[in-house]
Amino acid sequence: MEATNLALVKENVTKCMGCGICRGVWERKDVAMCPVWATGVGFEDSSPRGRVTVAQDILDSHISYSSPLADSVFRCTDCGCCATTCDAMDPNTLEPIVNVPQIVRAMRMDLVENSLVPPLVRDYMKAVHINGNPYKQPQDARGNWAKGSEVPLYSGQEYLFYVGDVGSYDERGQKMARSVAKLLMTGGVSLGILGSEEYSDGNDTMVMGESGLFQYLAEANIAAFKKHSIKKIISLDPHSYNAFANHYDQWGAGFQIQHYSEVLAELLSTGRLSPGRLGIKATYHDPCYLGRHNEIYEAPRKVLGAVPGLKLVEMPRMRKSAFCCGGGGGNFFTDLIGGGECSPNRVRIREALDTGAEVVAVACPLCAKMLEDALKAESLDDRIAVKDISEILLDSFA
Amino acid sequence: MAANLEEIRGALEAIVGRANLSGDAPDMIPYIKDSYSTMMGREVPLPDFVVMPKTAEEVQEIVKLANQHLFPIYPRSFGVNIAGSALPYAGGVVLDLKRMDRIIEINEDTMTATIEPGVTWGRLRKEANKKGLDVIPIGGPYQTSPVGNHLLTNITLYSSKYHCDRAVTLKAVLPNGEILRTGSWASAVGGEVNPYFRYAYGPDMTGMFRGSLGNYGIIVEMVERLRPVAPVEKNVFFGFEELAPCLKAMQAVERLEFSRTCQASNSSMTAHLILSPHRIKDPEQRQKLLARLPNYQITLGLGGTEEMVALFERVANEKIAEYGGKPFCLEPEEMAILNQVAEGASRGIMHMYAPCSGFAAVIGCLPITHVAEINGIVKQIVGKYDLRDPLSGEPLDHQLIVLPYDRCSTVYVEQEILYDPALDQAQLLPVMQCLRDCYAQIVGKYGASHTIPNKTLMKNMLPSYVELLTGFKKMVDPNNIMMPGGPYSLD
Question: I want to staple A177 with a disulfide (CB 3.0 to 4.6 A). Which of A167, A379, B51, B348 is the partner?
């Protein structure tokens, strides 16, 4: 069984001393915690340390990739908290010496190449491959979310508003896309969407190890952007942002990417949007692909901070130490972590509730959906609401 | 075991449930490795199964099954140890006890907590704080289990005032599957309502388990001593140019009996504690920090009312000054790390592994009188092997930390040799040889003792002592199912 991708990160693997700090700990609320380990289900291989130990044995040819191993590897949410908790970093580059997400991605690539992915992952890949999206919806329905709104198709505007799979097809994501688009246009941003010419960003395909499909999607998107001479993009989804900002350049993307929270913050600071008063207490949940992966912590907080009367109360696990909702790394679609009282989204919603906030603000359609599901599971609908920062802003206008 | 593996699997599944048993290699591999096995190049076999029991009754059933089928058992609490003390050296079954995580009671009157092995000290601290109590610090990560720590003993540090022994009584599943309770808990009549007195009914059976590393059975509940949270807590830091006066001052301050915690270290250790790589902007910062640090430091933890702490600090200042020590202060971020370490917090302590990830420790407990000498010996041996600092490439300045282990009659001395964990076995040879030479000197010349029954060190013990330790083991574990085959085995 080939482990060619894992071999490329061998040095990363061998640096781990096995202390287990990467697992995180409930009691230190300011320290990041592995959301999979936090579920309390599974053996030590459910922890970042466990995954690295398994990787070491694969490299030493003591074991080979197998289906049970694949189940464990694909449960990782790619949230990156282990890399921030591990203090073993290269002093010169400040990069973690033991970068578990990188190791996990390499293992996933090997598993894909060895045809050993779990059925739910296979189904996801197949749906994206055949339909261009994981919802198995037609490509020409991609822009349907904008029907009835004033959001135009792209025709040379300053910005492309890229909404991604969840914004295009998921009801919750569509609501968020409409709200963001409305605010951006209210602030005078010249934008358009690609509709049926937009392709899946491929971020989750990439982190699930399907690099070939990711490249295909990236090249399709880049071709569409180039065809329309698009230079500036605003993304709805931090997952898309991550793919565009960190991976598309290898195929000659060459465009400027912003997350919508950054643009909203700019519109507010320049007075192009003037929110009304909203006397609420809100807490903010940092999405992993916006925060830890791309270090955008301030913009969403600036948006919330601009709303008069809104009191922002932070959860102890925030910013770099934020607790993942469990939807990263493909788990939003595959749900390999499963439900239960200690599932990451339920843990996170309880952490939000503990702040005394009435609203948990998000800036990612996947987080919104994950946390809303948790609200239902915890029967907390009447105590706290999940809202996107754009929805809160719109509420203030009302 | 191979012959009846399926039968055993079926029986184990019936005890813990299918979801809490695995015989798959990917699930089990994380249980056979730690930095000890990696450094020593020790190949530990895969166990046949890893199981996660939830209750003492399940543990009893598993142990009885082990006696029936004669398979070894290796329990582990929360899996923080990196010194090879919970590895399955002879295969068999690993008992992962993380699901046994109940805090059964926090008793404000007796200042104790009754806990299961899967309770971490971080979690216990959080719950104890709600009742105005605190855990006596452990010098390990927040994930450390107080039960596992009792079995290991050598990471119970820092607390001069509260002594190193935090266990009161315990409930264990003996290797024959029977339940043993120690201290006042041992009584079948009334023991259940009073498990709070350790020194009941003769010899100290709680102490028998201390340092036993699972050889005598599996602790399923333990009554842990707590301490009150002080209204005001403050750490104070003093610097010295020479080690000898630093140690004298430490001894003098400890005799005043007001510090809650106390430790001494050299600048190499302190720098590694402070210099989380998050904070290193360039390697030169390390040199700059070393230049700002006094050569040796004492940290004292003070607690009490505001007036008490102010008084203690003044008296400590005066006493330390008699030995030429001076208070020192660093940048707020740096002091924050030192404060974390002084409180026994995890991340600060983990920083010392950070820049290179690998370290080998020369550990010994002995009178403070000899610390300066053995520090010189280790320095000389490190120099002889020309060991290099893995971070800077410069000649290695070993790290020293001194803690009053037993109210300062004996101190715990740890001298650490850092190495690059990416080194292969051949490259690690000088490090290991250096370790052996250091141990030979400090044990042979000064009688420095270890806290756990390491087999190599046991060779130096009086036959009568070894006979008692192993005789007790044979009595409670005639089939030798608990922890056989490893460096800490008493078989």
Answer: A167
